[in-house]
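Forgive a beginner's question, but would it be possible to get a protein, spelled out as residues, together with the matching structure tokens, please?
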Amino acid sequence: MARKRFVTSEISTDRKIAKLAEKNPVAAALWPWFITGFDDWGRMSADPVEVKLTIFPAFPYTSDEIAEIIQLYHQYEIAHYYEVDGKSYLAVNPEKWLKYQTYIRKSKLEQQKSKHPEPENAPWQAQDSANQKTATINVAKQQSATINVLSPSPSPSPSPSPSPSPSPSMKVVGGSGGETSEGEHGETRPNNHPLNNHSEELKNTTNEEREILSVLKSIELYPFDFEKDLQFIRDLATDYPSLDLLYQVKKWRDYKRDKPLTQKSSPRAQLRNWMNKADEWRNESNEKTGRNTAGGPARADPAGKYRQFVRSPDMP
């Protein structure tokens, strides 16, 4: 059974869970416990006796009742029940699973294998296959339309002319987040997003993680590494669950504008130390006042909980 799993508050308004609750409230209420039984690939054994002993050892439910609950999850499409070589398993959509279990590294899933076999003919696999088929058909139609276009009548080739010079009101300038253009009034316009080169990896990240990564990449002399920094901020989210990471990272960025990084700096160690001081301040303040103390706007964290306010260490 997993050491930790994230459960979002969205579970309270999930339509499939709500429909199941009308049928069997106990089955709906036990779903968060089942979440702890899935491995990093979103699979688990569906043997009722094994589930009872590993997940519900202190609950007064029989293995027959657990078997019925498992079938209800399959019936309401909350999880997919399947059998391989006479053994039963339960799996959830891996894309949706990784959307919430944000600390699981994609590289680990590629390098290692689950001890539970992959399901065949799962609903999400059929959907992926249908989407791929549709995309293939659309590409074929576009290619066919291109081939069938009548070639234009030949015409005299125009004499080459010199390439036009860029307009004086628009010029390209460099930037840490990709190329930008400078308008006629001196404003800077980004031509692409700082993380556009990582479009595939971004699919398994949250909005907050993407914002934090963009902030880190914008800091001068910060040695940005997408995979390393994604894991770094996920570790910070685990170690400091009460802090608003995005707010603190922005404060650290502003601090670095006055005291910039150097080639010899250890920026990740500095940022972790910043988070540690912010957390210490929050704990000390809570002990003195007997309540949670704020130092920045509250924002939702990746697990779906509301973070507490935290004041930056550089504030008096």
Observations:
- Residues 9-118 form a domain with the Arc Repressor Mutant, subunit A fold (CATH 1.10.10).
- Residues 123-148 form the longest helix (26 residues).
- The first strand starts at residue 43 and ends at 45.
- Residues 181 and 187 are 8 Å apart (CA to CA).
